[in-house]
Amino acid sequence: MRIAVLGAGYAGVTVARRLDASLPSDVELVVVDERPTHLVQHELHRLVRHPDLEDVIQVPLDDLFDRAEVRTARVESVDRENRRVHLSDGTLDYDYCAVCLGAETAFYDLPGLEDHAIPLKRVEDARAIRESFLETCRQGGTAVVGGAGLSGVQVAGELAALRDQEGARDVDVVLLEQFDAVAPSFPENFQRAVRDELDGRGVDVRTGTTVERATADAVETDGGDIEYGTLVWTGGIRGPEALEGERPPVRSDLRLDTRTFVVGDAGRIVDADGEAVPASASAALREARTVADNLRTLVEHEFEADPDDFAPRLKQYRFEVPGWIVSVGEGAVAQVGPTVLRGAAARAMKATVGAGHLSSVGALQQATELVESELGAPSVDDAALDEVEEALQISVDGDDLPDPADVVDGIEGEGLDDPVRLGTGAASSTEPVEIEIPVEDEDADDESPGDDGTGQADGEEE
């Protein structure tokens, strides 16, 4: 028997690692990805400003599995009827398959957009954005980011921070969004906090603006043309090429058919409550756990059950919102329940999410390096860093990422009498609560803690 896991992003690695540790020895497990490394996708925007993190946010696939075969190839199509995967270097037959190929950038057939805009899906994209923007900084001009979802917000924040780092005061960073708010799919108090971070960091946010076409030097919108030196597009997603660009609807047991599962952004998942599941890393990780359990159940049934037995009962995936976090340059906004956090607490949470994932796949050294990079400057106090380091030990077995509450609990900020505690006090109220925790800026005067030069006491962010 052979199980094929297609794709080695969050979903694919989680499915494969769980099966790697639990399948019978005579079941073959094959992991296929076009690259030999696992990418921590939600940290990809960091490479725009910190190219030295390339090796930190990528883990060799061969280091992640004990017995799974890793095959480096591009998945071209999946023939479900014949249970065969067509690859760039041949074919792969399977008994069960988990399609974990993620999503690609959607350009919506807008004239010139795909030709001129840079997406942000791969390491090469981050390099291209950085190279283009540094040239824009040298020449003067404007960087335009299309789409103000979380990816667009993070890219715009990095570009604004890189502009300040380069001293390019005459360069504008413009963030376009066709809806009336940034992060349009998220709660209003989260949107407001994100908008405040963007405004405070000098990003020109233009909501209610629709991109219509792009040329080599201008973006045409319904509100007029914007000349640019750098153009980045994060305005939407579509299915992978192996699924003909479609994101097929997937039921709550995460099966397309009796032998083929779809996990993560590659499909449009509907959970056990009939609710559409948003495309996100946290959802992909949780879906992957359900798929791994269901695959084990099916394998055990084939090996142990009487052929006349009924089909086994599979787990149904139910989406639960774990909270949201987004970086904006050196700042971050996080929401857990009704509580919106900014400043040191949000930065510590962001560092722990990325580093926690690395630790969960055994990349402890890379996790430590990511924490140091995320929390290095401006620095948070030692108590915050200690909380992060302790949280990294929660999930080395790969079962769970660190709980954000374990990171925030006990972090103290100036102006707060008590540590922030999620789930008690204000955080458990029905009204949204915003909490700002200043960052200790080593270069700031003692009289003005947390002033990062933008007039805000902010902190820092898949």
Automatic annotation (TrEMBL):
Secretion signal span: none
One GO MF term: NAD(P)H dehydrogenase (quinone) activity
Compositional bias annotation for Acidic residues: 433-450
GO biological process annotation, one example: aerobic electron transport chain
Record's keyword annotation contains Oxidoreductase: yes
The keyword Zinc belongs to this UniProt entry's keyword annotation: no
Name recorded for this polypeptide: NADH dehydrogenase FAD-containing subunit
Organism: Salinigranum rubrum
